[in-house]
Write a structure and sequence with these properties.
flat, about 120 residues, mainly alpha, about 0% strand
């Protein structure tokens, strides 16, 4: 009986959490989606789209590719919500502030033109 107790005491502790690898199929699907999104982005140029449609599509494809890379390759899809917020909220806040600046730029330009006009 004492031998069994000594044997249990000398055992190394079991790991609290075992590492679980993601299936390779997930990464292959992600690579294929990135390829399709990149091809669609190049097709925007090939189709010679112009103006707001062109830039809207390019930004849409860019955002989708970045989101896919962040979610799968940076493992954000499996992280705690607090870490996701810590990584994603600052860029989103920067985009909101840039939107506010764009909205205010017309007023600023108009006030400068009124103030500095020579008439």
């Amino acid at each position: 009986m004492t031998h069994a107790v000594a044997s249990d005491a000398t055992r190394s502790p079991a790991p609290a959490q075992e590492h679980q690898a993601h299936p390779i199929r997930l990464y292959v699907i992600c690579w294929c989606l990135l390829f399709v999104l990149s091809a669609a982005s190049y097709m925007v140029d090939y189709a010679q789209l112009q103006g707001l449609l062109r830039w809207g599509l390019i930004l849409l494809f860019m955002t989708l590719k970045a989101g896919l890379i962040v979610a799968v390759f940076m493992h954000m899809a499996w992280e705690r919500l607090a870490l996701v917020y810590a990584v994603l909220l600052p860029p989103l806040a920067a985009l909101v502030f840039m939107g506010i600046m764009v909205a205010e730029s017309g007023y600023t330009l108009q006030s400068r033109e009124d103030h500095f006009s020579t008439e």
